[in-house]
Write a structure and sequence with these properties.
- The chain is of the alpha+beta class and 763 residues long.
- It folds into four domains: 298 residues, Peptidase S8/S53 domain (Rossmann fold), CATH 3.40.50.200; 145 residues, Glucose Oxidase, domain 1 (3-Layer(bba) Sandwich); 83 residues, no CATH class; 140 residues, Immunoglobulin-like, CATH 2.60.40.
- 17% of the residues lie in helices and 25% in strands.
- The strands form ten sheets. Strands 14, 15, 16, 17, 18, 19, 20 and 21 form an eight-stranded mixed beta sheet that branches. Strands 30, 32, 33, 35, 36, 37, 38 and 39 form an eight-stranded mixed beta sheet that branches.
- β32 and β33 form a beta hairpin.
- It is globular.
- The two termini are 43 Å apart.
């Protein structure tokens, strides 16, 4: 149930799983015996995805996905399977030929609902479509997210030779994202409940909020539905411990992404490299890129960033009417374009100087700026090398009229935007990998003629959803009842382990079990007896030595399990080089005679005690005034209750998550007397590393008295839950964060910070 409370100042509204709000309605509801917890509604943003190039007629190489083997050899197309898509509308341009051309019984999209409020669309000048019309009415190139997802799952167009993973599956779609590309998580939960009631066997969620905890309301709702037999394939996000909710939930398939090995792309030709084509990606605001000469700007063997610090020497180079090549970083893309415009150039190219960057630079820019585009690292570095060697030769750039197929080679690379697990509870996420980079699929017909190449983990999860539909169809035909857990296990055990160019596998915390494979796991159950022979394996890289010690030889009858002990030895040197390293690998089961891999199981572990992992970043927490939170305050701090600009503000940056944060008010003797207003937070995710990657807690002078004045009170809720205002005098703030797997009743399991003296005065 969702309750909206209006006209309440944001600083006066605080919700948590243990109360902590001063609003009387919420206080009253929290005492009801049927209420388990009360949570604030979180905003979810549409996952970031990147524009590519249109008019490609083959979404996946069969050698990678095996989907077309399944269609042709096993005659599985997803027929009879209902797949739910909860997205930006799924967006559905259901009039798109590849998506069935209509909505309702007899069409591919059989059912749809629009959960976006009419007022929300009207505010943005969009004409509302009605409750039973999930059509995506939004404008701009950022729209069409759901249509792309729907095409990957079940699109089909003979004229384009386009075949989705489960082309004969039936779709049910829910539009939950408005045209502002945001949604409240309670709306997503409502859509999930509706999908369950509609009978969806697979649900695709290409959305999420960055929170690595399984206790979030959205994750809890999804976990309950997965136990009821519904499988949810959900996309992940970037960074350690940043698996998005509800992908953290048990029973949910969270998906990592690889780039498609070949794809269509817009390309440049350079006069210095005749006969070669180099892919580029226009920025979000660039419709076309001009031909022209490159400006020679090399300083100390490198390109400029085109930021403020570069402008003094950039004005010394002749570049009017030319195209400027710059490095990404040090300032925002729009700032670079603003500076380049002052120099008189007619276009800007970005490239990433990081040698590990494989993808084309993707730039989000404002409309009305200079034309700009991103290049691959290999292209940019090659141009720089040539400029340094041959400054007497003018490099002419020409934009090719036709797109070209870019062959990325045989190596399947993890996408730069893919995630790194685990969850805060050390559950392995992502669980499996699929193609999410440079994926060709449907978009609304009004955009790029209805077809486009996009990239994002949002493009990887629908491939898994489609594969699950094929598996369900197979087991329905064989009249074999299976659970969602069984299907997920089959996907994982028969995944293809992905390796780097060096031949070393990607870490399981990056690829999960490996790349999804489309046919092996759907073959009839093998009834052959296999024999495990004792073998010693010594294989590793970096500072890790792995030694496997299996049990004695054992014959395994069909459908009978055997326990095998595996010992992993890691030398001590790695512990010195890397604090709290996460090791991992794969246990592969092979046929004794053919040496063919039958299945594999990923594993990982952490060296060290997770309680020793610091929660706060260096230099944090600190206290500042609400009017200037970047400047650390001096103590004693003078706090005038009637002046909001003097409100003491505690600023933190967390490098890992914490299950609980408390901000206590101490009297002048250091004794706890209460919890400050908005001073309790549960299941907090880590902060990012952006310039504003911090959290601030403002003390307005209110606090909730504790029942007990003991120094390490953990149960502080009293019968008198009303907050009171601090009187004149001296106080301190004590911020406490619970360590990983910590016991809240154990004082040693908290990381603490105490402020200096705060003097409260009343005018």
């Amino acid at each position: 149930m969702s309750i909206q409370i209006k006209s309440i100042p944001q600083e006066k509204l605080s919700l948590s799983s243990e109360g902590g709000t001063s609003h009387p309605i919420i206080r009253h509801l929290s005492k009801h015996p049927a209420v388990v917890s009360i949570n604030s509604v979180s905003k979810l943003t549409q996952p970031q995805w990147f524009n590519g190039s249109p008019n490609y007629t083959f979404p996946y190489p069969n050698s990678v996905s095996q989907a077309y083997d399944v269609h042709g050899q096993l005659k599985l197309t997803g027929e009879g399977i209902l797949i739910g898509i909860i997205d930006s509308g799924s967006c559905i341009d259901y009039t798109h030929p590849a998506l069935g051309g209509g909505l309702g019984k007899g069409y591919k999209v059989m059912y749809g609902r629009n959960l976006v409020s009419a007022k929300g669309d009207e505010k943005l000048g969009i004409k509302p479509r009605g409750e039973f019309d999930p059509y995506d009415p939004c404008t701009g190139r950022k729209t069409g997210h759901g249509a792309h997802v729907a095409g990957i799952i079940a699109g089909y167009d003979v004229s384009k030779n386009f075949i989705g993973i489960a082309p004969n599956a039936t779709l049910a779609v829910w539009r939950v994202f408005g045209c502002d590309h945001r949604v409240d998580d309670d709306t997503v939960i409502k859509a999930l409940e509706m999908a369950h009631e509609a009978g969806c066997q697979v649900i695709n969620l290409s959305l999420g909020s960055e929170n690595g905890w399984i206790e979030s309301p959205l994750a809890a709702a999804v976990e309950r539905m997965s136990k009821a037999g519904i499988i949810v394939s959900q996309e992940t996000m970037d960074g350690p411990f940043s698996i998005s909710s509800p992908g953290t939930a048990e029973g949910v398939v969270s998906v990592a992404s690889i780039n498609s090995p070949y794809y269509p792309a817009k390309v440049f030709e350079f006069s210095t490299f005749p006969g070669e084509y180099f892919s580029y990606l226009p920025s979000s605001s660039t419709q076309s890129f001009p031909d022209g000469d490159l400006a020679y700007v090399i300083v100390n063997g490198s390109l400029p960033y085109a930021c403020k610090s570069d402008m003094q020497f950039l004005t010394q180079f002749p570049m009017f009417g030319k195209i400027l090549l710059v490095k990404r970083g040090h300032c925002k893309f729009n700032k670079k374009l603003k500076n380049a415009k002052l120099l008189g150039v007619k276009g800007v190219l970005f490239y990433d100087p990081n040698t590990s960057a494989h993808d084309v630079v993707k730039a989000e820019t404002h409309s009305g700026t200079l034309p700009c585009a991103g290049l691959e690292y290999a292209t940019g570095s090659r141009l720089v090398t040539y400029m340094m060697q041959r400054q007497d030769v003018i490099i002419k750039l020409k934009t090719a009229k036709e797109e070209h197929i870019i062959d990325g080679g045989p190596d399947l690379r993890i996408s730069d935007f893919s995630s790194i697990s685990p969850s805060y509870e050390l559950h392995m996420k992502p669980m499996i990998t699929a193609i999410g980079g440079n994926v060709y699929s449907t978009v609304p017909s009004r955009i790029d003629n209805g077809w486009s190449v996009k990239s994002g983990t949002s493009m990887a999860s629908p491939q898994v959803a489609g594969a699950l539909a094929l598996m369900l169809e197979y087991y329905q035909k064989t009249k074999r009842g299976v659970t969602g857990a069984f299907l997920i296990e089959q996907l994982q055990n028969h995944a293809r382990i992905l390796k780097k160019e060096s031949g070393i596998p990607y870490h399981p915390l990056i690829q999960g079990s490996g790349l999804i494979q489309g046919s092996i796991q759907m073959l009839p159950a093998n009834t052959t007896d296999y024999q495990i022979n004792k073998a010693q394996i010594d294989d590793g890289h970096f500072h890790v030595a792995l030694q496997f010690t299996p049990s004695s030889t054992a014959v395994i009858p069909t459908l009978v399990s055997v326990k095998i002990d595996v010992t992993v030895l890691v030398n001590n040197h790695m512990m010195v080089c890397y604090p709290f390293p996460m090791y991992g690998g794969f246990i592969v089961v092979k046929d004794v005679l053919s040496k063919r891999a039958l299945s594999s199981v990923p594993y990982f572990g952490v060296i060290g005690n997770m309680k020793d992992v610091p929660i706060f970043d260096k230099g944090y927490p600190y206290m500042a005034s609400e009017k200037n939170i970047t400047e650390k305050a001096n103590f004693p701090y003078l706090f005038t209750l009637t002046r909001s600009k003097s409100w003491p503000t505690t600023v933190i940056r967390t490098v890992t998550g914490t299950a609980r944060i408390e901000i206590r008010l101490l009297d002048k003797y250091g004794n706890p007397i209460g919890i400050i207003h908005n001073g309790l937070h549960t299941y907090k995710a880590r902060n990012g590393l952006a310039s504003k990657g911090y959290t601030k807690y403002i003390w307005t002078g209110d606090y909730k008295p504790t029942c007990n004045t003991g120094k390490y009170v953990t149960k502080y809720e009293c019968d008198n839950t009303h907050e009171v205002c601090a009187k004149e005098g001296s106080y301190y703030l004590l911020l406490r964060a619970l360590k990983h797997f910590g016991d809240p009743d154990n004082k040693d399991d908290w990381e603490e910070w105490k402020s200096g003296e705060i003097i409260v005065q009343i005018e």
